[in-house]
Protein backbone atom coordinates (compact mmCIF):
# COMPACT_ATOMS: atom_id res chain seq x y z
CA UNK A 1 0.00 0.00 0.00
CA UNK A 2 2.86 2.32 0.95
CA UNK A 3 4.69 1.39 -2.27
CA UNK A 4 1.59 2.21 -4.29
CA UNK A 5 1.29 5.68 -2.69
CA UNK A 6 4.96 6.41 -3.46
CA UNK A 7 4.44 5.40 -7.08
CA UNK A 8 1.47 7.73 -7.35
CA UNK A 9 3.45 10.62 -5.90
CA UNK A 10 6.32 9.98 -8.34
CA UNK A 11 3.93 9.89 -11.31
CA UNK A 12 2.31 13.14 -10.16
CA UNK A 13 5.76 14.79 -10.01
CA UNK A 14 6.48 13.60 -13.51
CA UNK A 15 3.15 14.93 -14.69
CA UNK A 16 3.80 18.28 -13.04
CA UNK A 17 7.27 18.38 -14.55
CA UNK A 18 5.94 17.55 -18.02
CA UNK A 19 3.19 20.13 -17.57
CA UNK A 20 5.75 22.76 -16.58
CA UNK A 21 7.94 21.83 -19.52
CA UNK A 22 4.90 22.00 -21.79
CA UNK A 23 4.02 25.43 -20.43
CA UNK A 24 7.63 26.58 -20.88
CA UNK A 25 7.69 25.28 -24.45
CA UNK A 26 4.35 26.92 -25.12
CA UNK A 27 5.61 30.17 -23.66
CA UNK A 28 8.79 29.94 -25.72
CA UNK A 29 6.83 29.22 -28.90
CA UNK A 30 4.41 32.03 -28.12
CA UNK A 31 7.30 34.39 -27.49
CA UNK A 32 8.95 33.30 -30.74
CA UNK A 33 5.72 33.72 -32.69
CA UNK A 34 5.17 37.11 -31.11
CA UNK A 35 8.69 38.16 -32.14
CA UNK A 36 8.21 36.87 -35.67
CA UNK A 37 4.80 38.50 -36.10
CA UNK A 38 5.62 41.83 -34.49
CA UNK A 39 9.28 42.58 -33.80
CA UNK A 40 10.84 40.70 -36.77
CA UNK A 41 7.88 40.96 -39.13
CA UNK A 42 9.54 43.37 -41.58
CA UNK A 43 12.63 41.18 -41.85
CA UNK A 44 10.65 38.04 -42.71
CA UNK A 45 8.45 39.94 -45.09
CA UNK A 46 11.67 40.98 -46.82
CA UNK A 47 12.77 37.35 -46.99
CA UNK A 48 9.44 36.37 -48.49
CA UNK A 49 9.57 39.18 -51.01
CA UNK A 50 13.08 38.16 -51.98
CA UNK A 51 11.95 34.58 -52.56
CA UNK A 52 8.77 35.40 -54.42
CA UNK A 53 9.59 38.65 -56.22
CA UNK A 54 12.40 39.82 -58.45
CA UNK A 55 13.51 43.16 -59.90
CA UNK A 56 14.15 43.09 -63.62
CA UNK A 57 16.09 45.83 -65.42
CA UNK A 58 14.32 47.02 -68.55
CA UNK A 59 17.06 48.18 -70.89
CA UNK A 60 16.49 51.31 -72.92
CA UNK A 61 17.16 51.13 -76.63
CA UNK A 62 20.23 53.09 -77.67
CA UNK A 63 19.63 55.78 -80.26
CA UNK A 64 20.82 55.32 -83.83
CA UNK A 65 23.72 57.15 -85.43
CA UNK A 66 22.86 58.21 -88.97
CA UNK A 67 24.74 59.87 -91.79
CA UNK A 68 23.52 63.10 -93.37
CA UNK A 69 21.25 61.17 -95.76
CA UNK A 70 19.74 58.89 -93.11
CA UNK A 71 21.99 55.88 -93.76
CA UNK A 72 22.30 53.85 -90.56
CA UNK A 73 25.83 53.86 -89.16
CA UNK A 74 25.06 52.45 -85.70
CA UNK A 75 21.93 50.58 -84.58
CA UNK A 76 20.86 48.42 -81.65
CA UNK A 77 19.85 44.77 -81.98
CA UNK A 78 18.16 42.74 -79.24
CA UNK A 79 20.26 39.88 -77.88
CA UNK A 80 19.77 37.36 -75.08
CA UNK A 81 21.87 37.16 -71.91
CA UNK A 82 22.05 34.26 -69.43
CA UNK A 83 22.60 35.05 -65.76
CA UNK A 84 22.16 33.23 -62.44
CA UNK A 85 21.31 33.73 -58.77
CA UNK A 86 23.71 31.22 -57.13
CA UNK A 87 21.68 31.33 -53.88
CA UNK A 88 18.82 29.65 -55.70
CA UNK A 89 20.86 27.12 -57.66
CA UNK A 90 19.95 23.65 -56.33
CA UNK A 91 22.62 21.55 -58.06
CA UNK A 92 25.57 23.60 -59.33
CA UNK A 93 27.34 20.54 -60.74
CA UNK A 94 24.38 19.38 -62.82
CA UNK A 95 23.42 22.85 -64.03
CA UNK A 96 27.00 23.70 -64.99
CA UNK A 97 27.18 20.55 -67.14
CA UNK A 98 23.91 21.35 -68.90
CA UNK A 99 24.76 24.99 -69.61
CA UNK A 100 28.34 24.27 -70.72
CA UNK A 101 26.98 21.91 -73.38
CA UNK A 102 24.52 24.47 -74.72
CA UNK A 103 26.77 27.55 -74.60
CA UNK A 104 30.04 25.78 -75.45
CA UNK A 105 31.68 27.11 -72.28
CA UNK A 106 34.17 25.59 -69.87
CA UNK A 107 32.41 23.51 -67.21
CA UNK A 108 34.84 24.59 -64.47
CA UNK A 109 34.15 28.30 -65.07
CA UNK A 110 30.40 27.80 -64.92
CA UNK A 111 30.58 25.60 -61.85
CA UNK A 112 32.66 28.20 -60.03
CA UNK A 113 30.12 30.94 -60.81
CA UNK A 114 27.09 28.84 -59.87
CA UNK A 115 28.70 27.79 -56.59
CA UNK A 116 29.20 31.31 -55.23
CA UNK A 117 26.38 31.21 -52.68
CA UNK A 118 27.36 34.60 -51.28
CA UNK A 119 26.34 36.28 -54.54
CA UNK A 120 22.84 37.02 -55.75
CA UNK A 121 23.75 37.73 -59.37
CA UNK A 122 26.38 36.54 -61.85
CA UNK A 123 26.52 36.77 -65.65
CA UNK A 124 27.00 33.39 -67.31
CA UNK A 125 27.17 34.59 -70.91
CA UNK A 126 25.99 37.74 -72.64
CA UNK A 127 24.69 38.31 -76.14
CA UNK A 128 23.87 34.75 -77.19
CA UNK A 129 21.56 33.56 -79.95
CA UNK A 130 17.83 33.30 -79.38
CA UNK A 131 17.92 29.55 -80.11
CA UNK A 132 20.39 28.88 -77.31
CA UNK A 133 18.49 31.17 -74.96
CA UNK A 134 15.24 29.31 -75.68
CA UNK A 135 16.95 25.97 -75.06
CA UNK A 136 18.23 27.11 -71.66
CA UNK A 137 14.83 28.51 -70.70
CA UNK A 138 13.18 25.19 -71.64
CA UNK A 139 15.44 23.38 -69.13
CA UNK A 140 13.87 25.40 -66.25
CA UNK A 141 17.08 25.27 -64.24
CA UNK A 142 16.54 26.70 -60.72
CA UNK A 143 18.41 29.99 -60.27
CA UNK A 144 19.28 30.38 -63.97
CA UNK A 145 17.51 33.06 -66.02
CA UNK A 146 17.49 34.68 -69.45
CA UNK A 147 16.95 38.37 -70.16
CA UNK A 148 16.93 40.55 -73.27
CA UNK A 149 19.68 43.15 -73.80
CA UNK A 150 20.56 45.50 -76.64
CA UNK A 151 23.71 44.84 -78.68
CA UNK A 152 25.29 47.59 -80.79
CA UNK A 153 25.78 46.81 -84.46
CA UNK A 154 27.57 48.84 -87.14
CA UNK A 155 26.08 47.93 -90.53
CA UNK A 156 28.62 49.94 -92.56
CA UNK A 157 31.51 48.18 -90.78
CA UNK A 158 34.71 50.26 -91.12
CA UNK A 159 33.05 53.32 -92.67
CA UNK A 160 33.81 56.29 -90.38
CA UNK A 161 34.56 53.79 -87.61
CA UNK A 162 36.84 56.09 -85.60
CA UNK A 163 34.30 58.91 -85.80
CA UNK A 164 31.35 56.74 -84.77
CA UNK A 165 33.30 54.84 -82.11
CA UNK A 166 31.91 51.75 -80.38
CA UNK A 167 30.27 50.50 -77.21
CA UNK A 168 31.37 47.91 -74.67
CA UNK A 169 29.54 44.83 -73.46
CA UNK A 170 27.44 46.97 -71.12
CA UNK A 171 26.33 49.08 -74.11
CA UNK A 172 28.24 52.13 -72.84
CA UNK A 173 30.04 54.33 -75.37
CA UNK A 174 33.81 53.86 -75.28
CA UNK A 175 35.03 56.09 -78.12
CA UNK A 176 33.98 58.52 -80.85
CA UNK A 177 30.43 59.83 -81.07
CA UNK A 178 29.28 56.87 -78.96
CA UNK A 179 31.34 58.25 -76.08
CA UNK A 180 30.90 61.96 -76.74
CA UNK A 181 27.10 61.76 -76.70
CA UNK A 182 26.67 58.82 -74.32
CA UNK A 183 23.96 60.53 -72.25
CA UNK A 184 21.86 61.34 -75.32
CA UNK A 185 22.27 58.01 -77.11
CA UNK A 186 21.95 55.79 -74.04
CA UNK A 187 18.54 56.86 -72.73
CA UNK A 188 17.35 55.79 -69.27
CA UNK A 189 16.84 52.15 -68.21
CA UNK A 190 13.54 51.19 -66.58
CA UNK A 191 12.66 48.39 -64.16
CA UNK A 192 9.90 45.96 -63.24
CA UNK A 193 9.28 44.29 -59.86
CA UNK A 194 7.15 41.16 -60.26
CA UNK A 195 6.19 37.93 -58.48
CA UNK A 196 7.90 34.82 -59.74
CA UNK A 197 7.41 31.08 -59.50
CA UNK A 198 9.81 28.50 -58.06
CA UNK A 199 11.82 28.58 -61.31
CA UNK A 200 12.20 32.36 -61.29
CA UNK A 201 9.71 33.02 -64.10
CA UNK A 202 7.41 36.04 -63.87
CA UNK A 203 3.83 35.15 -62.91
CA UNK A 204 1.57 36.92 -65.42
CA UNK A 205 -0.59 39.66 -63.92
CA UNK A 206 1.55 40.03 -60.80
CA UNK A 207 3.83 42.94 -61.74
CA UNK A 208 4.04 45.21 -58.68
CA UNK A 209 6.18 48.03 -60.07
CA UNK A 210 6.80 49.03 -63.67
CA UNK A 211 8.96 51.95 -64.78
CA UNK A 212 9.08 52.26 -68.55
CA UNK A 213 12.56 52.71 -70.08
CA UNK A 214 13.23 55.91 -72.02
CA UNK A 215 14.94 55.15 -75.31
CA UNK A 216 17.96 57.18 -76.43
CA UNK A 217 17.75 59.84 -79.13
CA UNK A 218 19.06 59.39 -82.65
CA UNK A 219 21.99 61.51 -83.78
CA UNK A 220 22.50 62.59 -87.39
CA UNK A 221 26.03 63.31 -88.52
CA UNK A 222 27.18 65.63 -91.30
CA UNK A 223 29.16 62.65 -92.66
CA UNK A 224 28.15 61.51 -96.14
CA UNK A 225 28.85 57.76 -96.12
CA UNK A 226 29.49 57.72 -99.89
CA UNK A 227 32.13 60.45 -99.69
CA UNK A 228 33.56 58.77 -96.59
CA UNK A 229 33.77 55.43 -98.44
CA UNK A 230 35.48 57.04 -101.43
CA UNK A 231 38.00 58.82 -99.19
CA UNK A 232 38.85 55.64 -97.28
CA UNK A 233 39.29 53.72 -100.53
CA UNK A 234 41.67 56.34 -101.92
CA UNK A 235 43.65 56.44 -98.69
CA UNK A 236 44.01 52.67 -98.67
CA UNK A 237 45.33 52.69 -102.23
CA UNK A 238 47.91 55.42 -101.62
CA UNK A 239 49.06 53.81 -98.35
CA UNK A 240 49.58 50.44 -100.03
CA UNK A 241 51.15 51.92 -103.16
CA UNK A 242 53.72 53.96 -101.25
CA UNK A 243 54.05 51.65 -98.23
CA UNK A 244 53.16 54.58 -95.99
CA UNK A 245 52.54 54.49 -92.24
CA UNK A 246 49.09 56.01 -92.59
CA UNK A 247 47.01 58.38 -94.68
CA UNK A 248 44.38 60.91 -93.59
CA UNK A 249 41.75 62.97 -95.38
CA UNK A 250 39.11 65.44 -94.26
CA UNK A 251 36.36 66.86 -96.49
CA UNK A 252 34.53 69.96 -95.22
CA UNK A 253 32.22 72.76 -96.29
CA UNK A 254 34.46 75.83 -95.84
CA UNK A 255 31.45 78.08 -95.30
CA UNK A 256 29.61 76.15 -92.58
CA UNK A 257 32.31 73.90 -91.16
CA UNK A 258 30.20 70.78 -91.83
CA UNK A 259 32.49 67.75 -92.19
CA UNK A 260 31.44 65.35 -94.96
CA UNK A 261 34.28 62.89 -94.42
CA UNK A 262 36.87 62.29 -91.71
CA UNK A 263 38.87 59.36 -93.01
CA UNK A 264 42.09 57.52 -92.26
CA UNK A 265 43.82 54.30 -93.21
CA UNK A 266 44.44 51.80 -91.72
CA UNK A 267 41.10 51.56 -89.96
CA UNK A 268 39.06 48.99 -88.04
CA UNK A 269 35.65 47.32 -87.84
CA UNK A 270 33.83 48.49 -84.68
CA UNK A 271 31.82 45.26 -84.62
CA UNK A 272 35.07 43.49 -83.67
CA UNK A 273 37.07 46.38 -82.24
CA UNK A 274 38.88 44.06 -79.80
CA UNK A 275 40.76 42.54 -82.73
CA UNK A 276 42.55 45.81 -83.58
CA UNK A 277 45.27 47.97 -82.05
CA UNK A 278 43.98 50.77 -79.85
CA UNK A 279 45.89 53.35 -81.90
CA UNK A 280 43.41 52.80 -84.73
CA UNK A 281 40.51 53.92 -82.52
CA UNK A 282 41.74 57.53 -82.71
CA UNK A 283 40.19 60.06 -85.09
CA UNK A 284 43.36 60.91 -86.99
CA UNK A 285 41.92 64.08 -88.48
CA UNK A 286 41.80 65.62 -85.00
CA UNK A 287 44.39 63.63 -83.01
CA UNK A 288 47.33 63.26 -85.42
CA UNK A 289 49.74 66.20 -85.05
CA UNK A 290 52.54 66.98 -87.49
CA UNK A 291 54.62 69.78 -88.95
CA UNK A 292 52.62 70.97 -91.98
CA UNK A 293 55.55 71.98 -94.18
CA UNK A 294 54.86 74.13 -97.22
CA UNK A 295 51.06 74.07 -96.85
CA UNK A 296 51.64 76.47 -93.95
CA UNK A 297 53.04 79.07 -96.36
CA UNK A 298 49.43 80.05 -97.00
CA UNK A 299 49.10 81.23 -93.39
CA UNK A 300 52.47 83.00 -93.66
CA UNK A 301 51.65 84.95 -96.82
CA UNK A 302 48.03 85.69 -95.84
CA UNK A 303 49.18 87.20 -92.54
CA UNK A 304 51.85 89.28 -94.29
CA UNK A 305 49.35 90.62 -96.83
CA UNK A 306 46.75 91.40 -94.14
CA UNK A 307 49.32 93.33 -92.08
CA UNK A 308 50.55 95.15 -95.23
CA UNK A 309 54.07 93.88 -94.58
CA UNK A 310 54.24 92.82 -98.26
CA UNK A 311 52.20 93.44 -101.39
CA UNK A 312 50.58 90.91 -103.67
CA UNK A 313 52.80 91.78 -106.66
CA UNK A 314 55.83 92.87 -104.67
CA UNK A 315 59.04 91.49 -106.18
CA UNK A 316 61.82 89.85 -104.18
CA UNK A 317 65.35 89.00 -105.30
CA UNK A 318 65.88 85.55 -103.84
CA UNK A 319 69.19 83.69 -103.47
CA UNK A 320 69.20 79.86 -103.38
CA UNK A 321 69.60 79.88 -99.59
CA UNK A 322 69.05 82.19 -96.65
CA UNK A 323 70.53 82.24 -93.17
CA UNK A 324 68.30 82.96 -90.16
CA UNK A 325 70.48 83.19 -87.04
CA UNK A 326 72.31 79.86 -86.87
CA UNK A 327 70.11 78.08 -89.42
CA UNK A 328 70.51 77.93 -93.19
CA UNK A 329 67.33 77.32 -95.20
CA UNK A 330 67.76 76.21 -98.82
CA UNK A 331 65.64 75.82 -101.91
CA UNK A 332 64.94 72.23 -102.90
CA UNK A 333 66.04 72.45 -106.54
CA UNK A 334 67.17 76.01 -107.28
CA UNK A 335 70.88 76.83 -107.04
CA UNK A 336 70.77 80.34 -108.60
CA UNK A 337 69.34 83.77 -107.82
CA UNK A 338 65.85 84.57 -109.05
CA UNK A 339 63.21 87.26 -108.70
CA UNK A 340 59.75 86.17 -107.54
CA UNK A 341 56.65 88.14 -106.70
CA UNK A 342 54.67 87.22 -103.60
CA UNK A 343 52.28 85.35 -105.89
CA UNK A 344 55.12 83.33 -107.41
CA UNK A 345 56.56 82.47 -104.00
CA UNK A 346 53.36 80.49 -103.31
CA UNK A 347 53.06 79.21 -106.87
CA UNK A 348 56.54 77.68 -106.84
CA UNK A 349 56.59 76.99 -103.08
CA UNK A 350 59.82 78.91 -102.56
CA UNK A 351 61.39 78.31 -99.14
CA UNK A 352 63.68 81.34 -99.31
CA UNK A 353 60.78 83.47 -100.50
CA UNK A 354 58.56 82.29 -97.63
CA UNK A 355 61.29 83.11 -95.09
CA UNK A 356 61.77 86.55 -96.66
CA UNK A 357 58.03 87.25 -96.33
CA UNK A 358 57.98 86.13 -92.70
CA UNK A 359 61.01 88.29 -91.82
CA UNK A 360 59.23 91.30 -93.29
CA UNK A 361 56.50 90.87 -90.64
CA UNK A 362 58.59 90.10 -87.59
CA UNK A 363 57.96 87.65 -84.76
CA UNK A 364 54.98 89.25 -83.03
CA UNK A 365 52.82 89.93 -86.11
CA UNK A 366 53.49 86.47 -87.51
CA UNK A 367 52.64 84.80 -84.18
CA UNK A 368 49.44 86.86 -83.82
CA UNK A 369 48.39 85.80 -87.32
CA UNK A 370 49.02 82.13 -86.51
CA UNK A 371 46.89 82.42 -83.37
CA UNK A 372 44.08 84.18 -85.28
CA UNK A 373 43.90 81.16 -87.59
CA UNK A 374 43.17 79.03 -84.53
CA UNK A 375 46.42 77.08 -84.27
CA UNK A 376 47.42 75.90 -80.82
CA UNK A 377 43.78 75.45 -79.75
CA UNK A 378 41.14 72.77 -80.42
CA UNK A 379 38.69 73.57 -83.20
CA UNK A 380 35.71 72.65 -81.00
CA UNK A 381 34.44 69.82 -83.19
CA UNK A 382 32.17 67.38 -81.32
CA UNK A 383 34.68 64.55 -81.01
CA UNK A 384 36.67 63.33 -78.01
CA UNK A 385 40.45 63.41 -77.96
CA UNK A 386 41.07 66.45 -80.14
CA UNK A 387 44.66 67.66 -79.89
CA UNK A 388 45.59 71.32 -79.48
CA UNK A 389 48.77 71.22 -81.53
CA UNK A 390 51.76 73.26 -80.43
CA UNK A 391 52.39 76.96 -81.05
CA UNK A 392 55.11 78.48 -78.87
CA UNK A 393 54.79 82.05 -77.64
CA UNK A 394 56.88 84.36 -79.80
CA UNK A 395 58.57 85.79 -76.68
CA UNK A 396 60.23 82.41 -76.16
CA UNK A 397 61.33 81.86 -79.77
CA UNK A 398 64.99 81.28 -80.53
CA UNK A 399 66.18 83.67 -83.26
CA UNK A 400 65.87 81.01 -85.98
CA UNK A 401 62.24 80.06 -85.19
CA UNK A 402 60.62 82.59 -87.51
CA UNK A 403 62.53 81.07 -90.42
CA UNK A 404 61.39 77.56 -89.49
CA UNK A 405 57.75 78.65 -89.06
CA UNK A 406 57.82 80.36 -92.47
CA UNK A 407 58.16 76.92 -94.11
CA UNK A 408 55.88 75.02 -91.72
CA UNK A 409 58.40 73.73 -89.18
CA UNK A 410 58.63 74.27 -85.39
CA UNK A 411 54.84 74.10 -85.19
CA UNK A 412 52.46 71.20 -84.65
CA UNK A 413 48.98 71.10 -86.22
CA UNK A 414 46.18 68.64 -86.89
CA UNK A 415 44.76 68.08 -90.39
CA UNK A 416 41.44 69.64 -89.30
CA UNK A 417 43.16 72.76 -87.92
CA UNK A 418 44.96 73.27 -91.22
CA UNK A 419 41.79 72.66 -93.23
CA UNK A 420 39.93 75.23 -91.14
CA UNK A 421 42.72 77.75 -91.75
CA UNK A 422 42.61 77.27 -95.52
CA UNK A 423 38.81 77.51 -95.40
CA UNK A 424 39.29 81.11 -94.27
CA UNK A 425 40.73 81.85 -97.70
CA UNK A 426 37.87 79.98 -99.39
CA UNK A 427 34.99 81.71 -97.56
CA UNK A 428 36.23 85.29 -97.69
CA UNK A 429 37.96 85.64 -94.32
CA UNK A 430 35.89 83.80 -91.72
CA UNK A 431 37.23 81.29 -89.20
CA UNK A 432 34.45 78.71 -88.84
CA UNK A 433 33.87 76.13 -86.13
CA UNK A 434 33.95 72.64 -87.69
CA UNK A 435 31.00 70.41 -86.85
CA UNK A 436 30.21 66.75 -87.40
CA UNK A 437 26.70 66.81 -85.90
CA UNK A 438 23.84 67.76 -88.23
CA UNK A 439 21.26 68.22 -85.47
CA UNK A 440 23.88 69.74 -83.22
CA UNK A 441 21.81 72.65 -81.95
CA UNK A 442 19.53 70.25 -80.07
CA UNK A 443 22.32 68.27 -78.47
CA UNK A 444 24.36 70.77 -76.50
CA UNK A 445 24.17 71.11 -72.75
CA UNK A 446 23.26 74.45 -71.29
CA UNK A 447 26.20 76.80 -71.38
CA UNK A 448 27.86 75.26 -74.43
CA UNK A 449 28.62 77.49 -77.40
CA UNK A 450 25.91 76.90 -79.99
CA UNK A 451 26.51 79.80 -82.36
CA UNK A 452 28.02 79.22 -85.79
CA UNK A 453 31.50 80.09 -84.52
CA UNK A 454 32.22 82.41 -87.47
CA UNK A 455 34.76 85.14 -86.86
CA UNK A 456 36.21 87.34 -89.59
CA UNK A 457 39.99 87.35 -89.32
CA UNK A 458 41.00 88.39 -92.87
CA UNK A 459 39.72 90.92 -95.36
CA UNK A 460 38.12 89.73 -98.56
CA UNK A 461 40.91 91.48 -100.50
CA UNK A 462 43.58 89.36 -98.78
CA UNK A 463 41.55 86.19 -99.32
CA UNK A 464 41.06 86.91 -103.02
CA UNK A 465 44.76 87.51 -103.46
CA UNK A 466 45.78 84.25 -101.75
CA UNK A 467 43.02 82.39 -103.60
CA UNK A 468 44.56 83.51 -106.91
CA UNK A 469 47.97 82.31 -105.74
CA UNK A 470 46.54 78.90 -104.84
CA UNK A 471 44.85 78.70 -108.25
CA UNK A 472 48.25 79.30 -109.87
CA UNK A 473 49.74 76.44 -107.80
CA UNK A 474 47.34 73.97 -109.43
CA UNK A 475 47.29 75.45 -112.92
CA UNK A 476 51.05 75.93 -113.43
CA UNK A 477 52.89 75.39 -110.15
CA UNK A 478 53.75 72.46 -107.87
CA UNK A 479 50.20 71.10 -107.71
CA UNK A 480 49.32 70.36 -111.35
CA UNK A 481 48.39 66.75 -110.51
CA UNK A 482 45.41 68.09 -108.57
CA UNK A 483 43.79 69.42 -111.74
CA UNK A 484 40.27 68.35 -112.69
CA UNK A 485 39.22 68.98 -116.26
CA UNK A 486 36.63 71.71 -116.53
CA UNK A 487 37.08 72.87 -112.93
CA UNK A 488 39.20 75.57 -111.33
CA UNK A 489 40.85 74.28 -108.17
CA UNK A 490 42.88 76.17 -105.59
CA UNK A 491 45.51 74.25 -103.66
CA UNK A 492 48.90 74.04 -102.00
CA UNK A 493 51.43 71.23 -101.80
CA UNK A 494 53.42 70.26 -98.74
CA UNK A 495 56.43 68.01 -98.18
CA UNK A 496 57.79 68.14 -94.65
CA UNK A 497 60.75 66.28 -93.23
CA UNK A 498 59.82 64.51 -90.00
CA UNK A 499 61.62 65.48 -86.84
CA UNK A 500 63.96 62.86 -85.42
CA UNK A 501 62.48 60.73 -82.68
CA UNK A 502 64.99 62.30 -80.30
CA UNK A 503 63.41 65.69 -81.02
CA UNK A 504 66.66 67.12 -82.37
CA UNK A 505 67.02 67.78 -86.10
CA UNK A 506 65.16 66.22 -89.01
CA UNK A 507 65.28 62.79 -90.62
CA UNK A 508 66.28 62.30 -94.21
CA UNK A 509 63.94 59.91 -95.98
CA UNK A 510 61.09 60.27 -93.46
CA UNK A 511 58.63 62.82 -94.77
CA UNK A 512 54.96 63.75 -94.55
CA UNK A 513 53.44 64.67 -97.89
CA UNK A 514 50.22 66.64 -98.08
CA UNK A 515 47.90 68.62 -100.28
CA UNK A 516 45.22 71.05 -99.23
CA UNK A 517 42.77 73.08 -101.27
CA UNK A 518 39.20 73.98 -102.19
CA UNK A 519 36.88 74.25 -105.17
CA UNK A 520 35.29 75.60 -107.25
CA UNK A 521 37.44 78.71 -107.51
CA UNK A 522 34.49 81.01 -108.23
CA UNK A 523 32.37 79.89 -105.27
CA UNK A 524 34.14 77.35 -103.03
CA UNK A 525 31.82 74.76 -101.47
CA UNK A 526 34.32 72.04 -100.55
CA UNK A 527 37.71 72.07 -98.87
CA UNK A 528 39.87 68.94 -98.67
CA UNK A 529 43.13 68.05 -96.96
CA UNK A 530 45.12 64.88 -97.65
CA UNK A 531 48.09 63.82 -95.50
CA UNK A 532 50.29 60.78 -96.23
CA UNK A 533 52.70 59.82 -93.47
CA UNK A 534 56.11 58.44 -94.51
CA UNK A 535 55.47 57.32 -98.10
CA UNK A 536 58.33 55.32 -99.55
CA UNK A 537 59.86 55.77 -103.00
CA UNK A 538 62.95 56.61 -105.01
CA UNK A 539 64.74 59.93 -104.60
CA UNK A 540 62.92 63.03 -105.86
CA UNK A 541 59.60 61.22 -106.39
CA UNK A 542 58.00 61.59 -102.99
CA UNK A 543 56.39 65.02 -102.82
CA UNK A 544 53.07 66.51 -101.86
CA UNK A 545 52.42 67.20 -105.53
CA UNK A 546 53.08 63.60 -106.61
CA UNK A 547 51.74 61.54 -103.69
CA UNK A 548 48.94 63.54 -102.06
CA UNK A 549 47.72 65.76 -104.92
CA UNK A 550 46.25 62.91 -107.05
CA UNK A 551 44.34 61.60 -104.02
CA UNK A 552 43.04 65.11 -103.35
CA UNK A 553 41.91 65.35 -106.97
CA UNK A 554 39.99 62.08 -106.87
CA UNK A 555 38.28 62.86 -103.58
CA UNK A 556 37.41 66.40 -104.64
CA UNK A 557 35.98 65.36 -108.01
CA UNK A 558 33.87 62.57 -106.51
CA UNK A 559 32.61 64.77 -103.68
CA UNK A 560 31.57 67.62 -105.97
CA UNK A 561 29.73 65.14 -108.21
CA UNK A 562 28.09 63.59 -105.16
CA UNK A 563 26.86 67.00 -104.02
CA UNK A 564 25.79 67.83 -107.60
CA UNK A 565 28.09 70.83 -107.76
CA UNK A 566 30.14 69.55 -110.69
CA UNK A 567 29.70 67.01 -113.43
Verbal overview:
The protein folds into two domains: 58-219, Penicillin-binding protein 2a (Domain 2) (Alpha-Beta Complex); 225-562, Beta-lactamase (3-Layer(aba) Sandwich), CATH 3.40.710. Helices cover 36% and strands 22% of the residues. The chain has 18 helices and 19 strands. The strands form six sheets. Strands 2, 3, 4, 5 and 8 form a five-stranded mixed beta sheet that branches. Strand 17 and strand 18 form a beta hairpin. Helix 9 runs antiparallel to helix 18 (544-562), helix 11 packs parallel to helix 13 (351-361) and helix 11 (297-306) packs across helix 14 (363-372). The longest helix is centred in the N-terminal third of the chain and has 38 residues, at 2-39.
N- to C-terminal distance: 135 Å
Structural class: alpha+beta
CATH homologous superfamily grouping of the largest domain: DD-peptidase/beta-lactamase superfamily
Number of DSSP helices? 18
The total beta strand count reads 19
Largest sheet: 5 strands, mixed
Helix content: 25-40%
CATH topology of the largest domain: Beta-lactamase
Low-confidence stretches: 441-451
CATH class of the largest domain: Alpha Beta
General form: elongated
CATH architecture of the largest domain: 3-Layer(aba) Sandwich
Radius of gyration: 36 Å
What's the pLDDT, averaged over the residues? Answer: 86
Proportion of residues in extended strands: 15-25%
User: How many domains, in number, for the residues?
Assistant: 2
Amino acid sequence: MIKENNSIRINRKRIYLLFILFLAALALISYRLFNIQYFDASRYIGYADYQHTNEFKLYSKRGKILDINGTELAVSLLEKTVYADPKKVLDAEYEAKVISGILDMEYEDLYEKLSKKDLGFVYLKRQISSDKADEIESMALPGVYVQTEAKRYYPQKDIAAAVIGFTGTDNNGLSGIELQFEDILRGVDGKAVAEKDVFGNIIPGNIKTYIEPINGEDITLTIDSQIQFMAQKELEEVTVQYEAQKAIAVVMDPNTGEVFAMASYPGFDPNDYQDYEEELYKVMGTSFTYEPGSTFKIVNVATALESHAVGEEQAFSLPPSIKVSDRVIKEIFRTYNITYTTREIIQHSSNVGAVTVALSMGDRIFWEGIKKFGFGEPTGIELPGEENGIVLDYRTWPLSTIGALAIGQSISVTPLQLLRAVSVIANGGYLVRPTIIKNGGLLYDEGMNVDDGREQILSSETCNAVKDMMLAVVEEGTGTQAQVEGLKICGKTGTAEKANRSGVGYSEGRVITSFIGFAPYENPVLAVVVVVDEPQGSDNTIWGGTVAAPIFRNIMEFSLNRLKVFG
